[in-house]
Amino acid sequence: MRLLLDTHALLWWWLDDPNLPERVRDVIADESNEIFVSAASAWEMAIKHRIGKLGSVGQALPRFHELIQADGFTHLPMDWRHALKAGGHEHAHRDPFDRMLAAQAEREGLTLLSRDPAMAALGARTRW
After folding, report:
1. Alpha carbon of 39 to those of 43, 44, 101: distances in Å?
2. Average pLDDT in the 6-17 region?
3. What is the pLDDT of residue 57?
4. Residue 55, SS3?
5. Residue-by-residue DSSP string for 3-37
6. C-alpha closest to that of 36 among 123, 124, 121
7. What value does the mean pLDDT take over residues 48-59?
8. Sheet harboring 2-5: ordered strands across?
9. 107: CB partners within 8 A, 6+ apart
10. Is 102:122 a contact under the CB 8 Å cutoff?
11. How far apart are the first and last CA of the chain?
12. What is the mean pLDDT of residues 72-90?
């Protein structure tokens, strides 16, 4: 299965947070699945850390690339096709990070691992 981690799923994976259900943890850990992490998640974490909403990721941010590689995940860059899809989606959802993740999942044929029900309204195939 080809999966894109929502930012909260990535953070909870890294922090071994109990908010990440065991069944989702098993899906991420399953080496037969290809796990993608969007550049949008790095962007979201950096902004939220800077404004004081994510103090717990301060040490992880400089090691973002290293941590993604260590987990065997694949970086997913943002490109103009993703941007047009995210910006042009008719749904009124205002979070630019969610819009980008949903657009990337849809354009790349990925299932988005997210507990956010708004992601499906943005057109993303989701699992949680």
Report:
1. 6, 9, 9
2. 95
3. 81
4. helix
5. EEE-HHHHHHHHHT-TTS-HHHHHHHH-TTSEEEE
6. 124
7. 87
8. 74-76, 34-38, 2-5, 111-113, 125-127
9. 81, 82, 85
10. yes
11. 14
12. 94
In the numeric block, the tokens 């065991």 are attached to 22
Nearest to 87 by CA among 76, 100, 77, 78: 100
The region, left, alpha or beta by phi > 0 then psi within -120 to 50, assigned to residue 73 is beta
CB 117: neighbour CB atoms within 10 A?
A: 9
Which tokens in the block code for residue 120? Answer: 């499906």
Residue with tokens 């749904």: 91
Q: Extract the tokens encoding 110.
A: 């990925």
Structure tokens at 59: 């040490």
- Quote the percentage of the chain above a pLDDT of 70: 100
